[in-house]
Q: What sequence folds into this?
């Protein structure tokens, strides 16, 4: 694997909203309170949904009054694993979607919503139903949002290659169930590919990835598409491993399996998730503008 640069550009973290990024990833940070303050500073209208012990932020267009029909829902979880700074997983995703929301609001776009979810990270022994996205998905059935197109941005802070996850389709097909859900997932995948193509993005990969909030959404019967980033060298190793052994995908879809795996072909970026080395030093902010543009494009799809 090519070596990532050892440190992110310090000047980048002086920009808005990134100047509060290091505070957000500090060990004792009250991430809920900080995120609330950042959204106010960015002049983004939001509400907090408290569902089943989780607190989710919902950011919607300022001019939106009528129920949103088939909106693009951009999702990023703001919680992190205990003992981890959570810079890539998933603070970068949160800040990228804050940028996207600001630009969408200024552009006058209407049919979108950005959601910052709580409790994506599960503790050992907890089921998918304990994930915040699961209860949130059930609650969406009674909300002002009709049949949203859900795109989960997770671990988007490191790398130059956009990875559109095939995990949901892989597992649904493997189980041989959920034909309607399979079709809905494939539609989201096609929309993501189309948005990347329209932007002229060259480094785009379809590949299985670790689960994100899509796990909870899918368990509740709502299609969701995960978006992540990886360094191109790690993508090459990943695809080589998958070609040699298609079943290798199971080794990193599940967090516990990935943690206990000794296979050196699992992308290093994923191996570092949920641990103390997930710090700002491995971030690659030079690629962030492309991710923000992609997020905006999904809301025009």
A:
């Amino acid at each position: 694997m090519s070596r990532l640069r050892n440190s992110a550009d310090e000047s980048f973290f002086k920009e808005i909203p990134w100047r509060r990024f290091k505070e957000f990833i500090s060990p004792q940070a009250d991430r809920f309170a900080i995120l609330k303050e950042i959204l106010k500073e960015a002049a983004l209208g939001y509400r907090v949904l408290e569902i089943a012990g989780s607190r989710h932020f919902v950011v919607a267009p300022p001019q939106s009054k009528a129920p949103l029909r088939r909106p693009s829902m951009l999702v990023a979880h703001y919680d992190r694993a205990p003992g981890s700074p959570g810079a890539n997983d998933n603070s970068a995703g949160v800040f990228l979607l804050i940028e996207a929301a600001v630009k969408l609001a200024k552009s006058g776009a209407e049919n979108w919503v950005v959601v910052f979810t709580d409790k994506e990270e599960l503790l050992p022994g907890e089921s998918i139903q304990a994930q915040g996205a699961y209860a949130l998905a059930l609650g969406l059935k009674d909300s002002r949002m009709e049949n949203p197109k859900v795109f989960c941005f997770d671990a988007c802070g490191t790398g130059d290659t956009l990875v559109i996850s095939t995990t949901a389709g892989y597992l649904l097909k493997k189980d041989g169930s959920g034909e309607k859900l399979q079709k809905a997932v494939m539609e989201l995948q096609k929309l993501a590919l189309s948005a990347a193509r329209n932007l002229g993005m060259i480094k785009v990969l379809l590949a299985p990835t670790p689960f994100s909030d899509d796990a909870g959404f899918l368990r509740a019967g709502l299609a969701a598409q995960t978006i992540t980033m990886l360094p191109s060298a790690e993508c090459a190793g990943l695809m080589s491993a998958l070609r040699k052994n298609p079943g290798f995908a199971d080794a990193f879809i599940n967090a516990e399996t990935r943690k206990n795996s000794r296979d050196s072909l699992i992308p290093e970026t994923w191996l570092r998730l949920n641990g103390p080395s997930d710090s700002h030093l491995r971030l690659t902010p030079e690629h962030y503008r492309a991710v923000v543009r992609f997020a905006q494009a999904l809301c025009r799809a």
